[in-house]
Amino acid sequence: MNILVRLFYGVYMRFWERIKQGCYEYLSSRGYTCDVCGREIFDYPSNRLCDDCFVSLSKNDGKVCEKCGRQTLSSGICLTCKRELPKFRQGFSPLVYRAESASIVNRMKNCNPRLALWLGEAVAEYFLANYADIERFKEGGETLLLIPVPLTKSKKKKRGYNQAEELAKSICKRLQEYGVQVELRTDVLERLRDGEEQKHMGFADRHTAVAAVYHVHKRKECRDRTVLLIDDIMTTGATGSVCAERLYGANAKEVLFLTPTALPEQK
Ligand SMILES: [Zn+2]
Ligand SMILES: [Zn+2]
Question: How close is the Cα of 234 to the center of ligand 1, in Å?
């Protein structure tokens, strides 16, 4: 009898722990605490970030490069684009890449994929407000093809997720809420191998370094489609440019590049 009681008690406690864990995950994923610093916030469900964290981020709301979308010092296109025009048609980034946004993106990438929820929403809102042809994709029109920049299979397995894919899921959801027709595909573009460290390379070197590692696996999915390519950050724009080149090679009609944050124009 004693054994039966202990067994029942054990099952009951495990069940209760699962319920508590489930509730915690649900509440924390719905924004009762700041996604960045963990502080409690009370204006649910409109915010995922507390006021301090939100204010500390540098928004890309001034002059932007007409081509790649990074913050610029004057109107027109940025110096990076003047040196080598990226292959995507237009880039969009709601945040300027500085210490605070870098910290969020790095945490999303390395340990906290949940940050992709807020970043994805910010990207989607910015895109809706700044992409001139958005009406083309409303009911009865075209369907946007959402493609996250892929990781190699081994890297994704090691990390447990691909941050660009997590962003794309959030972007997809928010665009659909606004009546935009979207299809998210993670099987169209592939990354075949890891390239060398690119941090200190210029655009041309990066372009060469990454050119061979991306491959369009399902070419017919791209034919005559408008593609929204998603990545976590735009530095030189070489990754976006190379992926766009591959997608155009598979007959995509137009490739747009979306990232939560982009390096500002460098003097
Ligand atoms: Zn905060
Ligand atoms: Zn530019």
Answer: 24
pLDDT digits (tens, 9 = 90+) for 124-140: 999 999 999 999 999 88
Which residues are placed with Cβ below 5 angstroms of ligand 1, an ion? 34, 36-37, 39, 50, 53
Token pair belonging to 198 = 């690119």
Contacts of 134 by beta carbon, 8 Å cutoff, 6+ apart: 127, 128, 180
In a domain, 117, yes or no: yes
- Give the CATH number, domain containing residue 179: 3.40.50.2020
Tell me, in angstroms, the distance from the centre of ligand 1 to residue 36's CA: 5
Interval between CA 125 and ligand 1 midpoint (Å): 20
What are the pLDDT digits (tens) for 209-228? Answer: 777 789 998 899 999 999 99
**Pairing assessment for the beta strands 189-191 and 214-216 based on DSSP bridges:** antiparallel
Residue 29 located in a structural domain? no
pLDDT tens for 59-82 read 999 999 999 999 999 999 999 999
End-to-end CA distance of the chain: 79
CB 152 within 8 A of CB 193: yes
